[in-house]
Every structure is written in C-alpha cells, then in structure tokens.
Amino acid sequence: MTHRTDHDDTENPHLRAFVEYRPLLFTIAYEILGSATEADDVLQDSYVRWSNVDLAGVDDPRAYLAKVTTRQALNAARAGQRRREDYVGPWLPEPIVIDERDPSDDLVLAESVSTAMMVVLQSLGPDERTVFLLREVFGFAHGEIADMIEKSVAAVRQISHRARAHVQSRRPRHHTDVTETEQATQAFLSAAATGDVNALLAVLAPEVVYIADSDGKASAARRPIHGADAVARVVLGLVRLGDKRRLRVGEIVVNGLPGFTVAMTDDPGAIFWLDVHDGAIHHVYAMRNPAKMSALDGARSIARG
C-alpha cells in the first residue's frame, strides 16, 4: 500500500482503520503464505474490498479486517499448494528486512515470524496453519475463526487441537541472549572471512543445520546439511568461491535474526541469516531464490507498506 498520506488518514475512515491494523494484517498474511510479496498483494486486494464496506454495519473493524485478509490469504495458500509440492529443494519463508524505525517491529518479529517457527508452520496444511495462527498467535476466539474461514466452530476446535499438538512437538525452545547472539555472529563472520576452520567450528553447534532455498534457480544445496564439520566446509567453500567473484558482504537483520547479504559478480547473490541461541549457531539459512530476495532492495516498513 503506497497511497497513504496524513490528509487521507484524517479524511478517509476506511484508510485510517486499515493503516491502524496493517501490521496485524500483514503479519497474518505473511505467516499464512510465507511470502512478503504475496502478503502485500493480499493486503492490496483486502483494502479494495474494505474500501467498499459500509462502516455503519461494522462493529469491530479489527475482526472484520482480519476476516477479509485471512480469507484472501487462505485462498492464495490453497491455490499455491501444488506449486509448493513442486518446489525444488528446501523451502524457506521469504526473508524480511525491517526498517529499524518501524514501530511495528515488536509484532512482526514475534516468535511466530522466526524462520524456525515459520518452517514448522508451513509443514501444516493451509487451514491448520491459519487456525493455529489466528488462535494461538493473535488470540481470536474459535467462533471468530469459524466465521473467518467459513467452517463450523466444532471443526475449528478440532483443527486447532490438531495443529497445536503438531507445532508443540516441533517448535524450537531455546534461550536467546542479545549479547551472545552478537558475539556469535561476529565470530562467525570473522572466521568465515579469514578461513579459520577451528574458529568457525567453535561457534557452530555440533548439530547445526544449513538450509538453502533456491527452487533450482541458482546453485545451492538441494538438501539440508547437518553437523558442524559439514556446515563449516560449505561456508568456507562459499567464501573461496566469493573470493574469485569479488564478494561483497553487508550486515542486516532478517526476520529479527542477524544476517548478511552477499553480492558476487555474475551471480544473483544471496541472503544469509543465523539462528543463534545458548551462544552457538544452530541454523544457517541461505536464500538463493531470486524470486524471494526482494529484501535486497532495502528495508521495508510493516506499518506503512
């Protein structure tokens, strides 16, 4: 959404309400779809529908807007199921680089938007994922959710129970410390830059996993790589390749996690981000799919679109 002005906010009650709840709406769509680009499209369509609603008949704008956005996102997720099944290699959510001045960071960077959590959520079907998010993350009542996804309350309760059990058995549970995260990130970057394999191994958890998303559109590992030794070899191999292609690195924050962009000559580039807890790196995520690297264009504002 790019048509917001202060004057519009004052004079247009539809736009004023939409801007107020936009962080919530974007987060719902993003978590259902795993794509910021598709979430933006959903919000665009949702605003068009909302702008034609008679506000005199709306008792709760937040619930109404959430319903409109949820239905649009759920329809898109169902339509994209076949595309996801045909995806080449591991799938990761489209990374988001948040504007540091964005007042909505606390909402967007909640645990549910962490990459590890979103990977768990995307292992659910669209309906289960939507019900879990609306109930467990955003606190909507079963009756409200039933209206949003056009199912019975009893069906929603069953879906919610099944989805919660699935997520609880797989969701990450770790302690994260800001200072430890920064130290581990800097140690990783320094070790990679100098080719110090021992220093790299010291900062990687023994069970670390490297996951690269390319959809077959760029060179990348087609399966997750497990273990500190194997991951260290991959990282150092990428650095050696980058040395031959004039590697340029820039630090960023991706979905609330420390990360960095990589640009190379004759290469689409990459976005890497690190899942750090208890002082060690447990996941190294790599986005190599050009269609999912809009974050390279710069930070975005969730509040303003």
In short:
The chain is an alpha+beta fold and 305 residues long. 52% of the residues lie in helices and 14% in strands. The protein has helices spanning 6-11, 13-33, 36-51, 61-79, 81-85, 105-108, 115-122, 126-137, 142-149, 153-170, 178-194, 197-203, 228-244, and strands at residues 204-213, 225-226, 248-254, 257-263, 270-277, 280-287.
> Which H/E pattern describes the elements?
HHHHHHHHHHHHEEHEEEE
Output the number of helix runs: 13
Integer tally of domains: 2
What can be said about the biggest beta sheet? 6 strands, mixed
Q: What's the end-to-end separation, in Å?
A: 5 Å
Please report the total strand number as a whole number. Answer: 6
What's the CATH class of the largest domain, please? Mainly Alpha
Mean pLDDT: 86
Low-confidence stretches: 1-8, 105-109
> CATH architecture of the largest domain, please?
Up-down Bundle
Major sheet strand order: 2-1-6-5-4-3
Task: Characterize the structure shown.
The chain has 305 residues and is of the alpha+beta class. The chain folds into two domains: 6-173, Up-down Bundle (Butyryl-CoA Dehydrogenase, subunit A, domain 3), CATH 1.20.140.160; 178-296, Nuclear Transport Factor 2, Chain: A, CATH 3.10.450.50. It has 13 helices and six strands. The protein has helices at 6-11, 13-33, 36-51, 61-79, 81-85, 105-108, 115-122, 126-137, 142-149, 153-170, 178-194, 197-203, 228-244; strands at residues 204-213, 225-226, 248-254, 257-263, 270-277, 280-287. The protein has a six-stranded mixed β-sheet. Strand 4 and strand 5 (270-277) form a beta hairpin. The termini are close together. The relative contact order is 0.15. The model is unreliable at 1-8 and 105-109 (pLDDT under 50).
